[in-house]
Amino acid sequence: MVLYRKGKIVYKDGKNLIFESDNVGYYVTFPDNKSIKLNQELKMCLYEIKNDFTWSLYGFKELEERKLFADLLNLNGIGPRVAFNVLNVGFDKAINLIRDGNIEEIAKIEYINPRIARIIVEELKEKLSSKSKDVKKLKLCLKIM
Fold it and tell me: Is the domain 1-61 a CATH 2.40.50.140 member?
């Protein structure tokens, strides 16, 4: 499995783009890609989904975004479209909505109903909160050193 590739954006069309790396073009679905520009060089974290019916490649600016996408996919009843739409509101906003337990706002995201929003909050709120505490502890330790 490829975790990331370095390359540049050669085409954009809505939520999809073509990412060229080592003279190979990858058709990638990329959330919140308004900040991405043509010919921009970047390191893109990738998530590949293959099954009997489809092959899809999702791209993310940061590893944390990819991890959240994978965490969402591991939840019962959540597929790539729903996970993508959660991240499409923006990574920081998605994290804050989940940590705050804001089921109503999450349910406003396309393809998400209140039941799915509740599952997302119940399953990920504690996990995301503990991760942020670990990051705060690490930053404090580094500051002391």
Answer: yes
